[in-house]
Amino acid sequence: MNEKRILPTSKFHTGVIESCGKASFYDEALVTFNVKNEVRSSPTVETYNSLIYAFAKGGLYKEAEVIFSRMGESGVAWDRDLFNGMIEAYRQAGRDAIKTYVEMNQVRCNPDERTLEAVRSVYCLAGLVERAKSNLRG
């Protein structure tokens, strides 16, 4: 009998990672990400974004940054959704979201309204309202 093996798609893996992140099952999200690599299915930008965002939202910043670096090394391009997710997660945790915004600009990833709103909020929370006005005209 000649059976064909059906492998899960990238969309499936991304959905599982997002669900694990929402449920705070970070180890399971990483396992799902790694299994994707084992079945010879390269992670997509969406798969990376989901894992990085799950880690950042969960306060696992070092882990998010490690996956962020792996993404860059793998040749999968960073995108606006990735940076927006990291900026929002860092902002909510009181971490340095501006550093991520600067990095976004350095790799020539253009911010959108979502990005600018998150960064404006960071400046305003830090009492730098005038800086928010002058630096972030969107």
Describe this structure in words.
With 138 residues, this protein is mainly α. It has two domains: 8-77, no CATH class; 78-138, no CATH class. The chain has helices at 10-22, 26-38, 45-57, 61-74, 80-93, 97-106, 113-125, 129-135. The longest helix is centred in the middle third of the chain and has 14 residues, at 61-74.
Global Rg: 17 Å
Q: What's the number of helices? A: 8
The helix fraction, in percent, is over 70%
Main sheet specs: none
Percentage beta strand? under 5%
Work out the number of β strands: 0
Subunit arrangement of the protein: single chain
- Shape type: elongated
In N-to-C order, the SSE pattern is HHHHHHHH
Average pLDDT: 83
State the secondary-structure class.
mainly alpha
- Domains (count): 2
What's the end-to-end separation, in Å?
Answer: 62 Å
